[in-house]
Each structure stands twice: as structure tokens, then as C-alpha cells.
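Give me C-alpha cells for this 106-residue protein.
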Amino acid sequence: MGMQIAHIMASCMGGIRTAGDLVAWMQITRRMKIREAKAYVAKKLAIDPFELTDEEIMRELRKDLGIGTVTSIAGSPKGILAKSRVARLLDINIRSVALFRSQLDA
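Here you go.
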């Protein structure tokens, strides 16, 4: 996870507080440049790319979509469930999610 964390921090988008983790996923899994990754994520979230760094907008959006927030919200998805929703939202394969799903089927 070391390089992914460095990527999230280097993109200066606030990680899970905003959309930094989502943009980083696109950079890592699809090898997108940051501008392209931001545009892709913004389109998937149906927001303007400038709103990706707005903590208030993103907290509500992340809560509504169940894709995880920094501070826990009672009843909201956490952990692998939130990560699974990120994978579905961005249409990407996240290895830990796929492994978890394969173990459910076994």
C-alpha cells in the first residue's frame, strides 16, 4: 500500500476527506494522468471537477454513495463494503474486494 498512499498524498486532494483516493485509484489502476483521472471521477460522481476537493460536498456525496468517510457515520458502510462500492462506482478491479468476494463464493 506504500506507493498508493504516496500517490494519494502527492495528488494533494485530501485522500478520503475529498476525492483524492478515488482519483488515485484511477491513476493506479488505469494509468491515467491526474487531469484525466479527475475528469473521470467527476463524471462518475456527476459533479464538477472543482468540487472534488470541497470537503463539505464530498462528505455528503461519500455518505450518500456509501463509499466511506474519514469519521464514521452510524449505519454507513465501512471497510470492505465501502471499498466494494468504490470499485463498482469507478468500474475498476480492486484486488482485496475480488479476493473477499471469491471467499464468499467458496
